[in-house]
């Protein structure tokens, strides 16, 4: 299994020994240029975004991680059995099967992780919890406000009840 970025906030994706290729998104990329076609950036972005409101966002991230990894682990026995049956007839066919499965699965997981990133951006926009529809003010811890010298300034802002987003 491979999990790009921080282990606690990533999603581990199975890869098999003997694969003949890897998903392109796992083979390319650089830390110097943000690129949504690169797997590492999906996982790195979610982990970095979570650092802004970790105590809130970690629940969403861990739930998605559990959903995806749980599905993958529940399928492994069947995937292994199918690969073994193919290997008994034609080892090259088994390698092709596992390669295709892993590439398709990894691409699906990267897409789901980008969907998670997009959801986190909207849900935690401007320091609020915006989903469900009403915005819940979360504010900042008192110790942090004091540490940055902002304990006497405005510590929260009221968000309008209805925001017109049609022209954004």
TrEMBL record:
A Pfam family: Peptidase_C69
Coiled-coil positions: none
GO BP field: proteolysis
GO molecular function, one term: dipeptidase activity
Protein known as: Dipeptidase
Source species: marine sediment metagenome
Source taxonomy: unclassified sequences, metagenomes, ecological metagenomes
């Amino acid at each position: 299994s491979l999990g790009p970025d921080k282990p606690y906030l990533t999603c581990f994706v199975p890869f098999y020994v003997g694969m003949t290729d890897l998903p392109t998104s796992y083979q390319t990329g650089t830390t110097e240029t943000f690129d949504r076609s690169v797997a590492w950036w999906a996982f790195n972005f979610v982990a970095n975004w979570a650092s802004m409101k970790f105590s809130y966002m970690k629940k969403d991230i861990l739930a998605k991680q559990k959903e995806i990894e749980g599905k993958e682990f529940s399928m492994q026995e069947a995937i292994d059995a199918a690969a073994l049956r193919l290997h008994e007839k034609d080892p090259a066919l088994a390698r092709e099967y596992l390669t295709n499965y892993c590439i398709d699965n990894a691409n699906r997981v990267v897409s789901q992780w980008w969907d998670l990133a997009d959801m986190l951006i909207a849900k935690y926009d401007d320091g609020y919890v915006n989903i469900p529809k009403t915005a819940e003010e979360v504010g900042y811890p008192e110790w942090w406000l004091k540490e940055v010298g902002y304990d006497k300034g405005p510590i929260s802002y009221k968000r309008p009840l209805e925001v017109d987003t049609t022209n954004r």
